[in-house]
Design goal:
The complex is a heterodimer of chains A (about 60) and B (about 450). Chain A has about 60 residues and is mainly alpha-helical. Chain A has 2 helices and no strands. The model of chain A has no long low-confidence stretch (mean pLDDT about 90). Chain B has a single domain, classed as Amidase signature (AS) domain (Amidase signature (AS) enzymes). The chains are: A mainly alpha (about 60), B alpha/beta (about 450).
């Protein structure tokens, strides 16, 4: 990630990052890109219902 | 004269027989904190008056025949993300340094009900993620085996204070290894229980879907005693499991005959290559288990980097969501390590997070399949002895795959167990992992190993 790309991302995030820290962050951004890539696997559209919510069981009325 | 070093088990035996006064025990720990914590920095807040008042109350109850059990009169410390009524709970951060909760965390209330004496609040990495940091209101804790060394984190104060004998046990939290890491580097026992076994109500969160609360103490038996008090259903925590809590101490038979253990060797020989001393110590522990009657066979899983990428992405994304408002409003009130790591978390997209959740489901299934026909798996808890505290990179969490994160991803009970020392006198550890809600089996295997080896007899040269 270039410094310009990081600066643009920080504007979108609304974060006021000190100038002295920005080069470090830009240099490390490849680490998050690599981690994201490791989680992307070939999957069919309906392959994986991971993002589901288990609701508490309703108590019987009455 | 109170012995310098006592385990929970040893102290409890003496207290029950009224051969040790909780007041004298508590005072002896306060004296030790006064003597040593200027070097260790394991406490952010010591509570001498409250501790002595609790100890006097415990002593009176015991004298009146109302002995509560093995934690009655036992001095412990609380990681400073566990909320305490009327006492600041800061997350070791300037951002929350004035936060005074109205109520105790669910697990704190349970530990107090069991009779524990709360000695104070222990250091943590900022919001259980940031350290070691030197730009926070309190300094980072130091490793008691060598104070130039890192404790690991984030339960750094608990990791430092227990081996040093400042407290007999303490609480930790573990989102990617924050109990097992400091336990490994500081040579104590620490169990990350099954996800949902211990309530997180009243504990400052790092990542809701990966956060685990648990005990750290000198021995597996001490951890079993503390876990007994901490475990149990809490309707206020949506992830709390309404599951029976067995008698963990009763499971500690000292016998591992017939247990089937899978050794995930590639995690520490290929994926995150450990140094020779660590590899040898873990291989030695596996051989010890075989000699004790367990069977050990190697198992192979997906590369460690995939487990770490899944867990780290989920953990940091959830943490970013939790801290987003304060990051926008008061960025530089956070320490540099925490805030800059959080910026990286902000670069992931919603799709990245959902892809990690999908991968998590697959990895949970993968470990479950691998453990068919096995009772436990073991691997490294850390790749080396504790590094120098000044040598920990700002983005360490992302640069090298974590050996502990896989079992946060799967919610499995996992424990660090000391298995030797380096030439420099620093502890080495392995990790033993069970099936979900088989925490008793993990504790049984850890306890049996400790009893069969000499490592619990050695304490830091303070």
């Amino acid at each position: 990630m270039t410094r310009q790309e990081l600066d643009a991302a920080l504007v979108r995030l609304g974060l006021k990052v000190p100038e002295a820290e920005r080069d470090d962050i830009a240099a490390a951004a490849h680490l998050v890109e690599e981690m994201a890539a490791l989680n992307r696997k070939p999957r069919a559209v309906g392959a994986e219902p991971a993002h589901t919510v288990a609701f508490p069981l309703a108590k019987p009325e009455g | 004269m109170v012995p310098v070093y006592l385990t929970v088990t040893e102290a409890a035996r003496l207290i029950e027989k009224r051969e040790l006064s909780p007041v004298e025990l508590t005072q002896s720990r306060l004296d030790r904190i006064e003597k040593l914590d200027g070097r260790l920095h394991s406490f952010v807040r010591v509570l001498p008056d409250a501790a002595l008042a609790s100890a006097r109350a415990a002593e009176a109850e015991i004298a009146a025949g109302r002995y509560k059990g093995a934690l009655h009169g036992i001095p412990i410390g609380l990681k400073d993300i566990y909320e305490t009524a009327g006492i600041p709970t800061t997350g070791h951060s300037k951002v929350m340094q004035d936060h005074v909760p109205a109520a105790d965390a669910f697990t704190v209330a349970k530990l107090k009900d069991a009779g524990c004496i709360v000695m104070g609040k222990l250091a943590t990495h900022e919001f259980a993620f940031g350290g070691p940091s030197f730009d926070l209101p309190w300094p980072p804790a130091r490793n008691p085996w060598d104070t130039t060394r890192f404790t690991g984190g984030s339960s750094s104060g608990t990791g430092a204070s227990v081996p040093a004998g400042l407290v007999l046990g303490g609480t930790g939290s573990d989102t990617g290894g924050s109990i097992r890491g400091p336990a490994a580097y500081c040579g104590l026992a620490g169990i990350k229980p099954t996800y949902g076994l211990c309530s997180r109500t009243g504990i400052l969160p790092l990542a809701f879907s990966l956060d685990h609360a648990g005990p750290m103490a000198w021995t597996a038996e001490d951890c079993a005693i503390m876990l007994q008090a901490m475990a149990g259903h809490d309707p206020a925590d949506p992830a709390s499991a309404n599951h029976p809590v067995p008698d963990y101490r009763k499971a500690l038979t000292g016998d591992v005959k017939g247990l089937r253990i899978g050794l995930i060797r590639h995690f520490y020989t290929i994926d995150s290559e450990a140094d020779a001393a660590t590899r040898d110590a873990i291989d030695g522990a596996a051989k010890k288990y075989e000699a004790m009657g367990a069977s050990v066979r190697e198992v192979a899983l997906s590369p460690l980097a995939e487990w770490a990428a899944c867990g780290i992405l989920i953990m940091m994304s959830e943490a970013y969501a939790i801290h987003e408002t304060n990051l926008r409003a008061r960025f530089t009130d956070f320490g540099e390590i925490f805030r800059d790591r959080m910026v990286l978390a902000g670069l992931w997209t919603a799709a990245d997070y959902v892809q990690a959740l999908r991968r998590r489901r697959e990895l949970v299934d993968e470990l479950d399949r691998a453990m068919q026909g096995l009772d436990l798996v073991m691997t490294a808890a850390a790749a080396s002895e504790a590094p120098k505290i000044d040598d920990v990179p700002k983005f360490a969490t992302l640069e090298r795959p974590s050996l502990t994160m896989p079992f946060n991803v799967t919610g499995s009970p996992a424990m660090s167990v000391c298995c030797g020392f380096t030439e420099a006198g620093l502890p080495l550890s392995f990790q033993i992992v069970g099936k979900r809600f088989a925490d008793a089996t993990v504790l049984r295997a850890a306890d049996a190993y400790e009893r069969a080896t000499p490592w619990r007899e050695r304490r830091p040269p303070l």
